[in-house]
Amino acid sequence: MATIRPATVDDAWPIAEVNVRSWQAAYQGLLPELYLRDLSVEGRAARWQRTLADPADQGDILVLVENASLLGFTAVDRIRGELRAIYLEPGRWGTGLGRQLLDTAVAALRDSGHREATLWVLDTNDRAQRFYAAAGWLPDGATKTDTMPGEDIPLSEVRYRIDLVSG
Question: From CA 145, how far away is CA 167, in angstroms rounded?
């Protein structure tokens, strides 16, 4: 049975592994192939180590663990009321574990006193948009263009929102 708990610094490497594998699967055909191929678990692990060591981020990163294996994670911004990330091992997509992780993230945002929450998703990521819509998230009309870290590749995103009071 899968459980969800706050992440610790010791989770940095397995979070990075899930992060890289899920990016490579989820963004295939949406981001440049060379960029996805060159994603580094080592580089991501170093960033996650810094994030998880920061007391300001305590409790904002939650991990889904089953039989001592980290299968997914979510990151929320309890100050802004935002779901910042949710990633699951690609082999576990469609099993309900992603929804369990999402529901826990939503509960954390609700418990932080927010009446609504937002997230940003690539406008071309139909799979993710269907996932969020099935959980009650709806696009609110806001859009933005970011660039990939260290790259000059534009990313068009749409914002989704959920009511945490009636939901």
Answer: 29
Q: Name the strand (E) or helix (H) holding 158.
A: strand 154-163
The total domain count for the chain is 1
Q: Which amino acid, 133?
A: A
Look-up: residue for tokens 């826990």?
104
Amino acid at 23: W
Say whether pLDDT at 167 is over 80. no
Domain range for 121: 3-163
Q: What tens digit of pLDDT does each residue of 24-73 get? A: 999 999 998 988 999 999 999 999 999 999 888 777 999 999 999 999 99
Domain of 123, CATH number, reads 3.40.630.30
What is the spatial distance between Cα 42 and Cα 20, in angstroms, rounded to a whole number? Answer: 10
* DSSP-based three-state secondary structure for 22: helix
Residue 71 CA to residue 65 CA, distance in Å, equals 6
- Given a contact cutoff of 8 angstroms between Cβ atoms, the answer to whether 116 and 162 are in contact is yes
Instruction: Identify which of 29, 37, 16 has the alpha carbon closest to the alpha carbon of residue 126.
Output: 29
Kindly give the pairing relationship between strand 138-147 and strand 69-77. unpaired
DSSP secondary structure letter of residue 43? H
